[in-house]
Amino acid sequence: MKVIFLKSFLSDIKKVKDNRLKSKIRKLILKIEAAKSLEEIAGAKKMKGYSIAYRIRIGDYRIGLYKENDCVELARLLKRNDIYKVFPK
Questions:
Q1: Average pLDDT of the chain to the nearest whole number
Q2: Strands 53-58 and 61-68
Q3: Is pLDDT of 64 > 90?
Q4: Model pLDDT for residues 20-54, shown as the tens digit of each residue
Q5: Is residue 87 classed as helix, strand or coil in its secondary structure?
Q6: Which PANTHER family does the entry mention (predicted)?
Q7: Is the pLDDT of residue 89 over 90?
Q8: If we measure between CA atoms, which residue out of 1, 4, 10 comes closest to residue 73?
Q9: What is the CA radius of gyration of the chain?
Q10: Which residues contact 47 (CB under 8 A, 6 or more apart)?
Q11: Three-state secondary structure call for residue 56
Q12: Beta pairing, strands 2-5 & 71-79
């Protein structure tokens, strides 16, 4: 799948200081690129009430993403208590 990084995701990832978390995110991005569909990605769950919004759990963090056709847009990376305030919109 093609992966697109939104500006909000890039700014969120710059704020992360934990190197272990960053390496997990890198591995996850590689898995998304290699996958043919989001169903192949462990932990990817569809957001209720939204047709294209998904989330992936990484410890206490969540990645908010949008899926359209064969393209995935990584939108946000925030702690679990913060992400649902801003994603999806």
A1: 94
A2: antiparallel
A3: yes
A4: 999 999 999 999 999 998 888 989 999 999 999 99
A5: coil
A6: PTHR38813, TOXIN RELE1-RELATED (PTHR38813:SF1)
A7: no
A8: 4
A9: 12
A10: 53, 54, 55, 88
A11: strand
A12: parallel
Distance in angstroms (rounded) separating the CA atoms of residues 17 and 44: 24
Query: pTM for this one?
Result: 0.89
Residue that is written with structure tokens 């702690």 in the block: 79
Q: Which residue matches tokens 């305030």?
A: 85
| 17's tokens | 């200081």
Q: Where are the beta strands (DSSP E) in the chain?
A: 2-5, 44-46, 53-58, 61-68, 71-79
Q: Which residues pair with 71 in a beta bridge?
A: 2, 68
DSSP-derived 3-state class of residue 33: helix
**2-84 fold:** YaeB-like fold (3.30.2310)
Q: How far is CA 73 from the centre of its chain?
A: 8
